[in-house]
Amino acid sequence: MNKSTVALTPEQYREIIVTMRDGFCGARPNPRIATALVLEANLGLRIGDILKLRLADIVKDGDRYRLAITEQKTGKARAFTVPLVLYDHIRLYCLDHGIPADAVIFPVTKRAVQKQLRLVCDYLGYQGISTHSFRKFFASEIYRNSGYDIALVQRLLQHSNPGTTQRYIGIQPRQIESAIEGHLCLV
Question: Is 161 helix (H, G, I), strand (E, B) or coil?
Fold first, then answer.
């Protein structure tokens, strides 16, 4: 886990993706890397796993789409549903760019993604952001939107214990203590 990398705010996420997709003074538009980062932020996979994806890896299962992968870093198997809207986003990207279903969607290196992201973040004045910030964004947003269900986030990230997940999404012991103190009801 990259402890110096921060999770993105929703505003930073949108601004980075739009700037990367549209380009800016000194940098051409880069829809390929923007789309790869969108997938990382919406699937919670590490960038290395995103860069190996093929459209054919996402399989229709009844009325939904499923993705089963073995995570490169951990070797753990992970299977989950890909929301239809996200599947359509990926499929349209592949159609627009002439990418066959059995080809790698993003034939770039992690280093190329990191380099482009650094250019955009420098332009926008953001610090402490790396590709992993998009996975942390995923985790933080799921945590907030699930009513602060740490066990759910832990399962999604495949962490072995909740403490790892708490550190990962930035829940500090002092925040936990404050939450408990704020909840006290002695009547």
Answer: coil
Give 27's strand partners: 24
For residue 69, list its beta bridge partners: 78
pLDDT in tens, the chain (187 residues): 455 788 899 999 999 999 999 999 989 999 999 999 999 999 999 999 999 999 999 999 999 999 999 899 888 888 899 999 999 999 999 999 999 999 999 999 999 999 999 999 999 999 999 999 999 999 999 998 988 888 888 888 888 888 888 888 877 655 666 677 777 767 6
C-alpha pair distances (Å), 67 with each of 85, 88, 93, 133, 134: 14, 14, 17, 22, 19
> What per-residue string of b and e applies to 74-98 under the rule 16 or more CB within 10 Å gives b?
eeeebeeebeeebbebbeebbeeee
Query: What does pTM read for this prediction?
Result: 0.87
- Name the fold adopted by 10-128: Topoisomerase I; Chain A, domain 3 (3.90.15)
In the chain, domain spans: 10-128, 146-187
